[in-house]
Amino acid sequence: xxxxxxxxxxxxxxxxxxxxxxxxxxxxxxxxxxxxxxxxxxxxxxxxxxxxxxxxxxxxxxxxxxxxxxxxxxxxxxxxxxxxxxxxxxxxxxxxxxxxxxxxxxxxxxxxxxxxxxxxxxxxxxxxxxxxxxxxxxxxxxxxxxxxxxxxxxxxxxxxxxxxxxxxxxxxxxxxxxxxxxxxxxxxxxxxxxxxxxxxxxxxxxxxxxxxxxxxx
Length: 217
Hints:
Layout: E1 3-7, E2 13-15, E3 21-23, H1 28-40, E4 44-49, H2 68-75, E5 79-80, E6 91-94, H3 108-119, E7 123-127, E8 150-151, H4 156-162, H5 170-176, E9 180-181, E10 191-194, E11 197-200, H6 206-216
Parallel strand pairs: 1-4, 1-6, 4-5, 6-7, 7-11, 8-9
Antiparallel strand pairs: 2-3, 10-11
Helix pairs in contact: 1-2, 1-6
């Protein structure tokens, strides 16, 4: 059985560009549906968070859905990300919500873990704002591990339409580090596979992203 490490944000707020705090967390659909597709496809999924904290679901992601129960069930007993051994897994998968912009984007331990997955030829996947978690994957010489890789990420246009005054552009930061951003139409299911690297643009891309990971596994 293939084993997937799903790294979920432990953040519950995002400091906006104007300095105010906005409640956030993980996006329910991205965690629940990714977990469902992967497990139904025969993978074993381990959820991990920084410090092993039980993560907070973004309340906005529950509106008009029935994801509350499944989201709580999937994330109720996470592993401690800092104690994870890459050798135990075949893939790493980072879903979004705005939370990763607060914690995962600055988690040096996650950066080292992603580097190890990449360098050993394992599958690396990120979805929506999950690619913020790729930002600390920088080598000692300053090289971004995923420089030159084609990838999708929640786009600046989607961010603008969403109306949240975020503190920085994830798309912009990735471009600055040398990523090749492949942006689909706003709110379209857009998934990019570059070798063993899979990225999805937004919540609409969740199922297709998880399916692409399964295909590589």
